[in-house]
Amino acid sequence: MTKPLSKDLSHHLSLEAQSRGASSLKTAFKYFGLPGMVFLGGGLPLSDSFPFDSVSVASPAVPFAAGVCAKPSGSEEDTINFKISKRGEENKFKTEIPLSRSLQYGYTEGQPELVEFLKEHTALIHHPPYEDWSVISTVGNTQAWDAVLRNFTTRGDSILVEEYTFPSALEASHAQGIHNVPMKMDDYGIVPEALEQQLAQWVGAKPKFIYTIPTGQNPTGSSLPVDRRKAIYEICCKHDILIIEDEPYYFLQMEEYTQDVTKRVATTKSRDEFVGALVTSFLSLDIEGRVLRLDSFSKVLAPGTRMGWIVAQNRFIERFLRIHEVTIQCPSGFTQSIVSGTLNRWGQDGYLDWLIELRKDYTSKRDVAIDSVHKYFPKAVISFVPPVAGMFFTVDFDASKHPKFATEFGSDPLKVENAIYEAGLKNNCLMIPGSWFKVDDNSEPPQPAQEVSEAAKNTIFFRGTYAAVPMDQLALGLKSFGEAATAEFGL
Amino acid sequence: MTKPLSKDLSHHLSLEAQSRGASSLKTAFKYFGLPGMVFLGGGLPLSDSFPFDSVSVASPAVPFAAGVCAKPSGSEEDTINFKISKRGEENKFKTEIPLSRSLQYGYTEGQPELVEFLKEHTALIHHPPYEDWSVISTVGNTQAWDAVLRNFTTRGDSILVEEYTFPSALEASHAQGIHNVPMKMDDYGIVPEALEQQLAQWVGAKPKFIYTIPTGQNPTGSSLPVDRRKAIYEICCKHDILIIEDEPYYFLQMEEYTQDVTKRVATTKSRDEFVGALVTSFLSLDIEGRVLRLDSFSKVLAPGTRMGWIVAQNRFIERFLRIHEVTIQCPSGFTQSIVSGTLNRWGQDGYLDWLIELRKDYTSKRDVAIDSVHKYFPKAVISFVPPVAGMFFTVDFDASKHPKFATEFGSDPLKVENAIYEAGLKNNCLMIPGSWFKVDDNSEPPQPAQEVSEAAKNTIFFRGTYAAVPMDQLALGLKSFGEAATAEFGL
User: Is the bond into A45 cis (omega within 30 degrees of 0)?
Assistant: First the structure.
């Protein structure tokens, strides 16, 4: 059965994206490589003079029996060793990208072997329900977000962002003169009914898109349940708004948390079970081509690859190609040769095995964190939902229960937040105050205020991560923070 | 003797650059790594799980006895072999950047070992005459140019660009709503007197900066003589205009061309002679901190490193740091570890040796190209200045001497240009018509027209490169093109 084509949503393109032409020199490049043609048109250095004759890589071998953090022996048992030569003819593996190509100009969209792998991967995981989608490589989601802003917003436009979100994302849009307008969230992320109401009451030009980190949200650690994703998608179709789904943590999905250690799942999932258990992405609901998905290797391979990719309808991918031609061009050739060499040796199945092991690793870390919160944090004043994805967990505190709340702190929950932050620091553990992630509503014209309950007003939270420190330190740190908070509340 | 400090030129920053804040989370990061502190503040993956255990590199060894294009034997004679491990303790070389660091988040400005090398290199070559300058890494000059536009221009601003220039640079500024205004050039680049006149007669807000490729200019192949550089620098100081010097070809400086093969210099220059013979950069004239120099590894190592750097006064470097934090972050960690591993083993002297060999290589290629133009192009209708730097040479034609000029072509030089282009193509050689690089003056408000002589009006040119094809093909191609052009002119 053929899938439908995307809708033409080009009217959402920014002034910058609309006025960007293709390179005039491109018309000459159709003659490049024609038999007999001496092409003196391009300023490409000869690859003979690239001073990198070969790069040899040692990567862990499928099935990663000792987990993602194992120190490999270097033997063929647990390590793949491969050499990427400058001169392609020496490369033995069929999908090797020789350095003569990856270190040369060209392939703004990414090297074909890598783009092909990413397309297959995307089809396998998300089954986009329309026909004309594609991918383009980026140098990570931070850059992808910047390119999205430039392609879809013009100074003075509004966008919708989660009430608490990644500060760098806001700084990027703010500096570009974009009005960030917060969407109401609860423990499970964006509240669809509130979003619908907000858009129904919207004053002035509609927002250009919603920006969401739907899975393992930063900072809240929440993940949008599938029914909310469906509702939000419907709302965006109705109001003709694009959806930017920023998904660096997508594959850091974990087992549900249970306090009962005997019920913790120790068995490895099969690949089918693993894929089947992944939360439905906005991309996989997208029948119109309204979703731009930002994916990255930063959290599943390494941040320093500086490589990610955007999935979107072809009309939009073409606009990213044009902006990349005059900005980043493409990810590093070393990155592309090394990552492609690794992934194409692993294969799609091997990559899933890697992600399955990563899931196990993050599940254990999350469990240590949440166990510690249960054990050391003051139960009477906190509440939290254990995360099912991502690197972050949050703990809510009822600020009104602080003994000095109504007196010394003048009923200001931010003063309680700061007191807990400082107490934690003194006890040698740093967690980030939730208010640091709060979006300043700078809508212009001002939008109608949304209702906030008294309880919500007095709720403060702290964000911690279980990704960045070894598990013994994690437990130790949370004990310190929990005890400090307990003492603060006089409990 | 201490050098003077730069002038505060912050008033040149764009609306975007002025409104960009630092990350609010940064205040927490001062606690990162403190003894005893458990830092749960950042979403960094543990480097244990980066699936790259080591990368081993084979690079040519100093002194590159067989030239930059030699195929190394792999023996210690001509090859350095080094291994960069993920876990730093295994690295034996003191300036190795372990993958655990280069593949992690951090160091937006570039890894310290590499930044240090680039600073030393910059001091050695350019001796910037003021104290408070620094460097920041980029992902190449295309991105650096984009960052310059965003840091110093706001929609509606004007900039001055060379009359013929790199089309991608123009497309970037045009799409951002910037008015590109051409500066008059001759065979040696920007004409200072014309620039002074243009600025004296300027209508409306002064241009934000001049953008120039001073050495081996693209497309003209011209290089600005030092007296012009000095004059232009003075003019820019007088009118308070910044200078963007885009210098990808700086180290592709060659010996002067001579037709007399017996006079061609065969001896290798010493390092001191080499450095002494390099043309004076705008940076090395810059007593005020008015120059932003864009440097790149693309033409001297390989384009796919996707790495370059900006040299500028510290106030400006700080603004690039801020924009990079929310866009590219930094170059690929693989690139940084590999390039730093190579360059720090070569040392500053070894790097100069590499550049000296590159100079020899480009000199030979340029000689083949210019010899062929002398031999095969129609002398009666052409003129040219052999390039002393870069990848490009140009040949001017007097269009009025074409037999159909006044008749069939209606005295339109562009019709002659197209006829020669097509004739070349038919004869299997492509050179790019000069008009493709011509800047459309879109000044707003319109600036007074500059005088153009009758001869200049009828001069057309073609750009070729000697960088991209082996020398035998280069000679063959230019023979084809020259013969086609000769026939076109009925000679």
Answer: no
Average pLDDT over residues B324-350: 97
| Angstrom distance (rounded) from CA B336 to CA B330 | 9
Instruction: Identify whether the C-beta of residue A256 lies closer than 8 Å to the C-beta of residue A105.
Output: no
Q: Which of A25, A56, A167 sits opposite B167 (nearest CB)?
A: A25
Contact assessment for residue B466 and residue B365, using Cβ atoms and an 8 Å cutoff = yes
Q: How many residues does chain A have?
A: 491
End-to-end Cα separation, chain A, in angstroms: 63
- In chain B, the largest separation of any two C-alpha atoms, in whole Å, equals 87
Helix axes A192-200, A226-238, angle to 10 degrees: 10
Pick the residue of B327, B343, B431, B472 with the most A CBs within 10 A to test the interface with A by mutation.
Answer: B327
Can you tell me the ipTM of this complex? 0.97
Q: What are phi and psi of B56, to 5 degrees?
A: -110, 135
- Sort out which chain B residues have CB atoms less than 8 A from A44's CB and list them: 303, 465, 467-468
> B464: closest CA among A27, A40, A26?
A40
Task: Report the pLDDT value the prediction gives residue A88, as an integer from 0 to 100.
Answer: 73
Name the residue with tokens 């392939």.
Answer: A107
Interatomic CA distance for residues B112 and B100, integer angstroms: 14
Q: Is the pLDDT of residue B92 over 90?
A: no
**Where exactly are the structural domains of chain A?**
106-347, 358-489
Q: Is the pLDDT of residue B462 over 80?
A: yes
Interval A187-203 mean pLDDT: 97
CB atoms within 10 A of CB A231: 18
Among residues B147, B217, B211, B143, which one has the least CA distance to residue B179?
B211
Find the closest chain A residue to B249 by CA distance. Answer: A43
Backbone conformation region of residue A329, classed left if phi is above 0, alpha if psi is from -120 to 50, else beta: left
Domain A106-347 belongs to what topology?
Aspartate Aminotransferase; domain 2 (3.40.640)
Q: Which of residues 81-110 of A touch B (CB under 8 A)?
A: 87, 99, 102-105
Hunting for tokens 């002494």 — which residue is that? B276
- Chain A residue numbers with beta carbons less than 8 Å from the beta carbon of B53 are 58-60, 72, 74, 79
Q: How far is A280 from chain B (nearest CA, A)?
A: 24
Question: Strands across the sheet with A179-183, in order?
Answer: A133-138, A308-313, A291-296, A242-246, A209-212, A158-162, A179-183
Rounded distance between C-alpha atoms, residue A74 and residue A122, angstroms: 31
Question: CA angle B146-B275-B228, nearest 5°?
Answer: 60
Closest residue, chain A, to B66 (C-alpha): A49
A148-194 tens-digit pLDDT: 999 999 999 999 999 999 999 999 999 999 999 999 999 999 999 99
Beta strands in B150-288 (DSSP E): 158-162, 179-183, 185-186, 189-190, 209-212, 242-246
Average pLDDT over residues A389-409: 97
Looking at the predicted structure, is the pLDDT value of residue A267 above 70?
no
| In B21-85, alpha helices (H) | 26-29
Residues 6+ away with beta carbon under 8 Å from A6: A130, A131, A132, A133, A288, A289, A313, A314, A315
Q: Is A104 helix (H, G, I), strand (E, B) or coil?
A: coil
Whether residues A49 and B19 touch (CB distance < 8 A) is answered with: no
Q: Do A329 and B306 touch (CB under 8 A)?
A: yes
Nearest to B175 among A16, A99, A139 (CB): A16
CATH architecture, domain defined by A358-489: Alpha-Beta Complex (3.90)
Selected residue of A155, A294, A334, A465 to mutate for chain B interface (largest B Cβ count, 10 A): A334
Helix (H, G, I), strand (E, B) or coil at B476: helix
Count of all residues that appear for chain B in the document: 491
Paired sense of beta strands A291-296 and A242-246, if any: parallel
